[in-house]
Write a structure and sequence with these properties.
Blueprint: E1 4-8, H1 13-24, E2 28-33, H2 41-50, E3 55-58, H3 64-73, E4 79-82, H4 89-94, H5 96-117, E5 121-127, H6 151-168, E6 174-180, E7 182-184, H7 203-211, E8 218-221, E9 233-234, E10 236-238, H8 239-254, E11 261-266, E12 272-273, H9 274-285, E13 291-294, H10 309-315, H11 323-338
Parallel strand pairs: 1-2, 1-4, 2-3, 4-5, 5-6, 6-11, 7-10, 8-13
Antiparallel strand pairs: 9-12
The chain binds UDP-4-deoxy-4-formamido-beta-L-arabinopyranose.
Length: 342
């Protein structure tokens, strides 16, 4: 019998790639999504790639009644992978309540509904942003978490605290929290990737949209950081590697070694500067990128890259895709979008 897994936010960027990995490993997937930052067409793409169209429920997880009702319908599920959240850092600074309301209410309602329906396993989408400006590289999971510069980041830190309190209580729900570094790239089919709804915040979609002529110029936010070339260093990870890590986390939760709460970094362990990313993109695309050095962006830290040892040891997972693969797939996806794949 197939095990049924609920994927909240399964129509989104990381969620949709994870749904494909789960279906390819013979799980039955049901997606809960409010479509606030995604598109139903993704279901047809998933079907094109896997041969299976996942079951879909449009639901606003901010509503406890709606959450309760939809979980009741799917109470035979084994686990929840909870991607559903807002993720735009700048937007969160302008509208913090929207972020606290959406990201925290949806988590609380989901956990409550899991408790009521005895769905005992939960994987949470956390972020390396919970480390703030860490003092040691590579970052290990026991590094202290810090209050974030943005409400978005604080929702991730608070969510982890909620999960800690919850798993310390009488709850028999086991949780794995996955701290993503910088996800980029797209599915190798060219059918699935990030659908940007507004001007992007993140570096990679900004680069590809500039190269595609959608945006005029990439602004490089500061070149006076204490790094090798003065621009900040990040740990970019292929979204399909990230999807595979969710599969490994799920297998651990459903297996005999499941713990009440575990936290893992998901990165490659390699750091690349902004200028290195631009050069690597130029090499992949074969054209020069229009960019200009400008002022620092408030809140940016000089350097972030993951220690990958714990995920390797406990989950038996490590990223396998190269920077070239990440950039090539991002660029192919951008070109497909511009050719009308909307
Ligand atoms: C990377 C580097 C920028 C855009 C954020 C969130 C994090 C996670 C991922 C997501 C930085 C520089 C960027 C541009 C630039 N959350 N940059 N020009 O800031 O590491 O992490 O996104 O859902 O929680 O904080 O990623 O891609 O925004 O920036 O020079 O136009 O690229 O200054 O050094 P970041 P990023």
């Amino acid at each position: 019998m197939q095990e049924k897994i609920i994927v909240t936010g399964g129509c989104g960027y990381i969620g949709s790639h994870t749904v494909i990995t789960l279906i390819n490993h013979n799980y039955e997937v049901v997606i809960f999504d409010d479509l606030s930052n995604s598109n139903l067409k993704i279901l047809d793409r998933i079907q094109k790639i896997t041969g299976i169209k996942p079951h879909f429920e449009q639901v606003d997880l901010k509503s406890s009644e709606a959450t309760h009702a939809v979980f009741k319908t799917h109470k035979d599920s084994k686990a929840v992978i909870h991607f559903a959240a807002h993720k735009a850092v700048a937007e969160s600074i302008h509208n913090p309540l929207m972020y606290y309301q959406n990201n925290l209410f949806s988590l609380i309602n989901t956990l409550k509904a899991q408790q009521d329906n005895s769905i005992k396993h939960h994987i949470f989408s956390s972020s390396a942003t919970v480390y703030g400006n860490p003092s040691q590289m590579p970052i290990t999971e026991d590094a202290p978490t810090q209050r974030s510069f943005s409400p978005y980041g604080n929702t991730k830190k608070m969510a982890e605290e909620i999960l800690e309190d919850f798993t310390n209580s009488q709850s028999d729900i086991s949780v794995i929290s996955l701290r993503y570094f910088n996800p980029i790239g797209a599915h190798e089919s060219g059918q699935i990737g990030e659908f940007p709804t507004a001007i992007p915040n993140n570096l990679m979609p900004y680069i590809t949209q500039t190269a595609a002529g959608v945006l005029e110029k990439l602004m490089v936010f500061g070149n006076d950081y204490p790094t090798k070339d003065g621009t900040p260093i990040r740990d970019y990870i292929h979204v399909v590697d990230l999807a595979e890590a969710h599969l490994k986390a799920l297998q651990r939760l459903l297996g005999p070694k499941s713990q009440p709460l575990e936290v893992f970094n998901l990165g490659t362990g390699n750091g690349y500067s902004v200028l290195e990313m631009i050069k690597a993109f130029e090499a992949v695309s074969g054209s020069l990128l229009n960019y200009e050095i400008t002022d620092r962006r408030p809140g940016d830290v000089p350097e972030m890259f993951a220690s990958t040892a714990l995920a390797k040891q406990v989950l038996n997972w490590e990223a396998s895709r190269s920077l070239h693969d990440m950039i090539q797939s991002s660029w192919t996806w951008e070109q497909n979008l511009r050719k009308g794949l909307k």
